[in-house]
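pasting input
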Amino acid sequence: MIDQVCKVLSINPLAKDIWEMTFSADQLVKIYKGAGQFIEILGDKTWDHPLRRPMSISGITDSTMSIIFKVMGQMTSRFSSLKVNDEINVLGPLGNTFSHPSENETAILIGGGVGLAPIMNFLNELKSINNHVLTIIGARTKDEHHLDHDPCNGMYLTTDDGSIGDHGTVMPTLDRIINTVKYPKLYACGPEPMLKAVQQFGLTHDIPTELSVESYMGCGVGLCQGCVLKREGPDFAEDSYQKKYTVVCKDGPVYNAKEIHFD
Amino acid sequence: MIDQVCKVLSINPLAKDIWEMTFSADQLVKIYKGAGQFIEILGDKTWDHPLRRPMSISGITDSTMSIIFKVMGQMTSRFSSLKVNDEINVLGPLGNTFSHPSENETAILIGGGVGLAPIMNFLNELKSINNHVLTIIGARTKDEHHLDHDPCNGMYLTTDDGSIGDHGTVMPTLDRIINTVKYPKLYACGPEPMLKAVQQFGLTHDIPTELSVESYMGCGVGLCQGCVLKREGPDFAEDSYQKKYTVVCKDGPVYNAKEIHFD
Amino acid sequence: MTDFHIKIGSVEFMNPVFVASGTFGYGVEIPDLLDISKIGAIVTKSISLMPREGNPPPRIVETSSGMINSIGLANIGVEKYIEEMLPQYAQISTPIIANIVGWTFDEYLEVLRKLEAVSSNIIGYEINISCPNVKKGGMEFGTDPETVEKLTSLLRKATNRLLIMKLSPNVADIASIALSAERGGADAVSAINTVVGMSIDPYSHQSNIFTTFGGLSGPAIKPIGLAAVQKVYRKVSIPIVGIGGISSGNDVVEYMLAGASAVQVGTATFRHPDAANQIFDQLKTYCQTQNIQQISDLTGKVKLHS
Amino acid sequence: MTDFHIKIGSVEFMNPVFVASGTFGYGVEIPDLLDISKIGAIVTKSISLMPREGNPPPRIVETSSGMINSIGLANIGVEKYIEEMLPQYAQISTPIIANIVGWTFDEYLEVLRKLEAVSSNIIGYEINISCPNVKKGGMEFGTDPETVEKLTSLLRKATNRLLIMKLSPNVADIASIALSAERGGADAVSAINTVVGMSIDPYSHQSNIFTTFGGLSGPAIKPIGLAAVQKVYRKVSIPIVGIGGISSGNDVVEYMLAGASAVQVGTATFRHPDAANQIFDQLKTYCQTQNIQQISDLTGKVKLHS
Ligand SMILES: Cc1cc2nc3c(=O)[nH]c(=O)nc-3n(C[C@H](O)[C@H](O)[C@H](O)COP(=O)(O)OP(=O)(O)OC[C@H]3O[C@@H](n4cnc5c(N)ncnc54)[C@H](O)[C@@H]3O)c2cc1C
Ligand SMILES: Cc1cc2nc3c(=O)[nH]c(=O)nc-3n(C[C@H](O)[C@H](O)[C@H](O)COP(=O)(O)OP(=O)(O)OC[C@H]3O[C@@H](n4cnc5c(N)ncnc54)[C@H](O)[C@@H]3O)c2cc1C
Ligand SMILES: Cc1cc2nc3c(=O)[nH]c(=O)nc-3n(C[C@H](O)[C@H](O)[C@H](O)COP(=O)(O)O)c2cc1C
Ligand SMILES: Cc1cc2nc3c(=O)[nH]c(=O)nc-3n(C[C@H](O)[C@H](O)[C@H](O)COP(=O)(O)O)c2cc1C
Ligand code: FES
Ligand code: FES
């Protein structure tokens, strides 16, 4: 990982309270490993908000990186007021990556809310190697979507209120399309209730499933042990100290659904 | 006093590390009492630097106020990076004013460094009522001056290194011109050593002298008792609690030279 | 509409947001820009038996998200306070709580007695025990449980007015001090006073505070104040007034959830003289959006994980 | 050119800027972007007799200019530490100080003995006494002078290596605890550990920390750490390692002026993994512009007004 001062190249609203920001990242992209990785942004030189904010990488080029973020509190609100040419300090790339489906597997990507950020990145990564992919993006309502509902091209939107795409959460749509796929592999990122539902679905149907989880982070680099999540089962990564907890910023944020336990 | 959100109208460097900033102040100017008063600026919405920064009013119009400030530390450095249309929160006007010279008196204004801010304001105030005024502005070197040395019009510059105007501190020039004036009254603002020298000069020659002093301020409005300065003599203002100390933000910042004691 | 009334002892306040001692003078010399009638209560600066000129400057310095002060309890003394300030309270509808300080038991008691002796508009007393006990070798009154119990009961006997003991955070176990105050008969405790701090100018090498050590306040100490309030809440049953770094309506909510019945705003007033009213307005908005019927329902309602 | 060597006990360090316990792992799993060979010393996370999984999340939360943590001393235990970590130190030139924690005297002693028993690359020990003493009803070891003296002398007898007692700020009189450490034979004390704090989410009403109370660190506590160091400096003659909110070269200078011989950087590392090196670079610049010949000359040289 490195610690780079990056210039904001573009920053635009995508949907209600959701923004996309692209910044120069020539150093960062050199050591980027793949979709699923994240960065930590220090938006403020003062100590008023001491901790960096973790953000999934949503897109990447030779020299730039993008994120998609939702205004949640003070720092994301400050990020949304950044202007082109402003500087941010970015630490990254951090964490592990989604593992690619094997040749006979079909990837089903599931994103909820801003959980779509790493999902879109993975979608583009898979497309570039010509994988056949189905994507389901869920939101509460139309205003929170910025993509088109396009089932013919494998892009399904869902809304809780039915205002665009399929009515309901991502689960009914997943339930429906799963039968059209012989060897599915699930990848999901989004709010915890959605991750739990996908985890449950994967386990019940014995479908390989990878989940990208969130956690309140301190350092983002494995030093503070602040970002832990409970493990399920006996497997554990080499570089975490505990059997009970996994260190999300280092061992994650992407996990085999069998590996982790939500409360 | 009031607490107004003001728009930066212009901000320009005047000399080395010295800036002039003008901001909208329609509410503030309505209750402005005169030169010598100051404002307190909150440059930052975060609590990283909790306290406002006191700044003398250096100029005023129907709807605007100006300050002249020197970059000393973190907040003044942040002020210097403000842009036109940025917003600052200004509390003011605060403190007392210079008292005008009587009809037969000639005002000699003495400013050192950014102490010239209230001095320039007072100069313009006195000019507008056609007072005859002499002004001495001291600095270490040429780069710190932005005015012209113009003795014919009563404007004397001094520099410690002689790079512009008279060579030396303000004192030799004061010593020289004092004899050209029948009933002088001194007004000074600047670094403590200069104020001490002017105080000493005024006392020795029995010339009425007013000094505008600085002090580390908390509230700026008389609530915290943080900004005190030692008094000299028995006189003391009604609204301070102590005989030994005077509350600079309320009883000052302008004092009769006889009234105060520098360590 | 939320009901903002809260009760401390037998006294009802219209609004739980007070201003803290030493940050609002005597409540009468307030800046013209603010309407004090809306403030829950005004706690005066500490009043001592004899007038005190306070410490030499520098008395204050900024720190990260806070400030250090060492004003030295500058005040006009109780006699002049009675003469000059008390009469002015007749014009003020805001409840006034007189904060009292002393260096011996007798001094505290005498100040209180002098105030009790005159018919006054004071609603009660807050006792500043973050003060060195001259008879006990300079240890703070507020650090010793027995001393606090004795002081409280002495004062309790001398007044029926609201009696609040203000706790020092510079102790190993603040809850046991609170318990002493409760046993001594206090109606309530307030917590916290400032935390001992220091600051140095790296260039001049000088202490930024004349007395070397001063009291740290502001948002930096909010976590310390919250922990203190929660610890005290678990140990005593009298009401708690929460203090320390409150600068927003959300901060008030945090303190109430931790166990406070009311709060005091200190340092925030130095940024905005009107801070207490602004914070109360934010609290109102919070209560509206969160549908809080009765502000006192929040007290102690933090949801713990363990 | 400034001489940055400093001495603690009989050990000389090349640079007074160390990294603090619990913020740099065991010193071997460090991010690839930083060069640890430049760091003055690495203090490991606390090592206990048995492995500890630590507390459930949430374990950390941001506060104004600080953060609260409640990691729960998660660590692999001394045996695994000896097996897995110690051998790796052979590759590292940076001095390693092993931080030890326990819940009884015996536990502390056993961890130390196990480490002493193996020929190791550890230069010394820092003892974390901010831990509840199970035999004394859960009171922190660090709050009782007698306990600290006893613990120190027990450990002193078991090692000739550098022995540093790490002081808790959650006491009324930190200097008297330091004195106990000195009497017990410590080579040095370090101060401060984190300050007890709490944080609540005003919307969910939940404690932001699973264990309710956690340890406050970061610039918010710098004034508290400085006051502690100065108070300790006045009372003891052994060296002091200053800790608490250090995030710049100027902060190091402040701590040294207050009495520290060396310092530790904790929370700042979470913003910039390379913080300790950056801070040392700033210190170098400061020393150059201020013409400091010998960094150790700064220790205790604060100019007081009174
Ligand atoms: C590995 C990882 C990847 C991530 N990737 C992304 C990403 O790609 N895009 C993205 O947007 N986020 C992402 N996040 C989440 C993101 O880091 C957080 O949203 C962000 O840190 C919030 O910072 P903040 O300062 O804006 O909010 P904070 O001020 O830190 O807090 C926001 C929280 O405060 C509470 N809150 C604040 N205001 C209100 C209110 N008015 N009503 C109710 N509750 C309130 C809520 O609990 C909310 O969660 C990721 C997190 C992780 C761990
Ligand atoms: C009534 C009144 C009126 C005033 N009017 C004016 C005015 O009109 N114009 C004006 O410019 N100022 C004025 N001042 C002073 C002004 O308020 C201060 O300069 C300002 O508050 C500094 O804020 P800061 O955050 O930039 O500096 P801070 O960070 O608060 O501190 C600056 C101090 O830090 C030290 N310092 C910082 N960096 C260095 C370094 N590299 N080397 C050595 N020392 C260092 C110095 O001691 C310096 O004084 C006035 C003050 C008062 C009380
Ligand atoms: C400048 C100043 C003066 C103070 N004076 C007193 C005082 O006279 N008596 C007292 O009990 N507390 C005094 N305090 C402490 C405050 O009442 C309050 O307990 C403390 O500042 C914490 O609250 P805050 O963080 O909101 O400021 C003072 C605080 C400050 C900042
Ligand atoms: C996440 C975290 C974990 C810590 N773990 C330990 C520990 O295991 N042992 C210990 O003695 N101190 C521990 N500390 C305390 C630090 O070593 C240090 O004393 C404290 O954080 C103050 O320094 P700072 O303000 O620079 O962070 C920890 C601090 C943090 C923030
Ligand atoms: S965020 Fe610090 S270990 Fe994961
Ligand atoms: S700055 Fe607060 S009283 Fe003057």
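fyi The longest strand of chain D covers residues 122-128.
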